[in-house]
Design goal:
- This protein is α+β, with helices and mostly antiparallel strands and 80 residues long.
- The chain has one domain: 2-Layer Sandwich (Dna Ligase, domain 1).
- It is 40% helix and 32% strand.
- It is built from 2 helices and 3 strands.
- The chain has a 3-stranded antiparallel β-sheet with strand order 1-3-2, covered by helices on one side.
- Strand 2 and strand 3 form a beta hairpin.
- It is globular.
- Keywords: Signal.
């Protein structure tokens, strides 16, 4: 039983260390914009420009839908 507890403690400690700094203040969110007939490269550029406008860094982007109903999703974070 003691070996199990020690193993569990090691895994929890390793998870905390690998997770990073828990005290870092970072606010993240998703910006969704309509992007009719655009491509992934245009979506990426739009996310980059929006990130520069809001002084945020882009963590990822996604293009969904087709034709006139396409939407560009930008996942961005700002340091507080």
């Amino acid at each position: 039983m003691d070996a199990r507890k020690a193993t569990l403690c090691c895994f929890l400690l390793l998870a905390l260390v690998l997770h990073g700094n828990l005290a870092s203040a970072e606010t993240c969110g998703t910006n969704i914009s309509g992007c009719p007939w655009c491509s992934k490269s245009i979506c990426k550029a739009a996310c980059w420009a929006t990130g520069k406008l809001y002084r945020a860094h882009v963590k990822g982007y996604k293009l969904s839908g087709s034709g006139i109903k396409r939407k560009c999703y930008c996942y961005m974070c700002q340091d507080d």
